[in-house]
Amino acid sequence: MNEVFRLFGAFVAPAIFISATSLLILSINVRLMGIVSRLRHFVHARHDAARANRLQEAEAFARQISSIEKRASIVRRSFLLALISLALTIASCLLLGLGLYLADAAFAAAIALVLALICLLLATLYYIREVTAALSSVREEARDLGFMDLGLQAHPEAAHRDTL
Questions:
Q1: What residue segments make up the domains of the chain, in order of their start?
Q2: pLDDT(159) > 60
Q3: What is the 3-state secondary structure (H, E, C) of 43-102?
Q4: Which pTM does this prediction carry?
């Protein structure tokens, strides 16, 4: 019975990391889906503008697409590192359980957990980088007068409000 308590005790620490990592993955996934949705919208808008021979508009969308693709790449790295961290944490739980019977498995579990934490740290740093880039992306849009003019063309009621 004592070994059962030791087994569950060995699972507790990595299990906490599983929960924390899962919440981070959920947050990153929501952000990635938002970026992908916006990217798809801009790609379609650029295509429509190019077909209608509105070259300045297509160029403005192309600049935004480039910026969003860079952000999506950062988020994707964060997402993949968080998933690797989750997989390593689960592996460390299993190895810790096996480590009650095999000393080498306990050592492998410690290595897996350290690698999981390093991946989690890197995922968090990439996520921080993306969050700070998100604000700069909005600033770029504000500085891009061609892109801002597109917003008024797409929403004439906004242009009307501005003249009131």
A1: 2-163
A2: no
A3: HHHHHHHHHCCCHHHHHHHHHHHHHHHHHHHHHHHHHHHHHHHHHHHHHHHHHHHHHCCC
A4: 0.74
